Amino acid sequence: KILVTGSLGQVGSALVMKLRREYGAENVIASDIYQPGNEVTESGPFEVLDVTFEHKVYETAKKHQVDTIIHLAGMLSAMAEIKPLMAWHLNMGGLLHVLETARELGIKVFAPSSIAAFGPHTPKEKTPQLTVQRPATMYGINKVTGELLCDYYFYKYGVDTRGLRFPGLVSYEAPPGGGTTDYAVEIYYEAIWKKSYTCFLGPRTRLDMMYMPDALNAVIQLMEEDSEKLTCRNAYNISAMSVTPEEMGQEIKKHIPSFVMDYKIDTVRQSIADSWPNSLDDSAARMDWGFSAEFDLEKMTKDMLENI
Ligand code: VAH
């Protein structure tokens, strides 16, 4: 049985539905801080769970006798720069409560990291799996600390912790909230609705991106792999494409010729994006557990525009 925290978020919404299809709805307990009425809360077990309360995490995991926790509850990069202390409290408190519960109940844990775990001193092109990690954002500090904490619980207590450094994620099931890469989702919606988009990052801001189906497959593949094959548990670099807003706009124009794009730079999110890599080396994930991405910019754009 799998407990997913942050089930109403951008990754959680899509992952819960996929896991329920693959493992049976009754085996996937979704949870989040509140319970609206939607397909995530109504297609299987759902718990209201605030991960900043340790006993709540423990009680929920024990009640449902879960063997795996996929911990997605957290605050993303741009919001974390506005509320850094709240970000630390949620991102680190939540993770610690999940790890403590996992240690006591013998549960496997997936905790997401991000390209945000790298900083200005990190090599930007083909960023190595093992390299300098001195992020300059609260979210990036949370991600690096999370990686180290997950490794610690593995080495010290034998907790089976695993993680992925997600690039920017693009999807249509549920919007991201408070991220720096949110432009890569907004651009598709506004291309359909308004035939135009004002981007908050500069035209040549190059970042790693990935379409949600590839991200979900990567989580499932990683979690199903034999533990001893994992040479870098927390956390694997993965990527599908390295793109700029300008390139995304040009790809959209192939489908919507009248689409126009302009730029109104958000200096906070621009400086966050500028501190991140331009392209990741994901060879460790390919070698250890056969990661491969199916969607490139062309296939993602076609699928996004068809599904919105
Ligand atoms: C964010 N979407 O923008 C997240 C992610 C690599 C970006 O961590 O904060």
From TrEMBL:
UniProt superkingdom: Bacteria
Coiled-coil ranges per UniProt: none
Stretches assigned to the NAD-dependent epimerase/dehydratase domain: 2-238
Cleaved signal peptide residues: none
Pfam family, one: Epimerase
Family per similarity comment: Belongs to the NAD(P)-dependent epimerase/dehydratase family.
Record-given protein name: L-threonine 3-dehydrogenase
UniProt source species: Siminovitchia sediminis
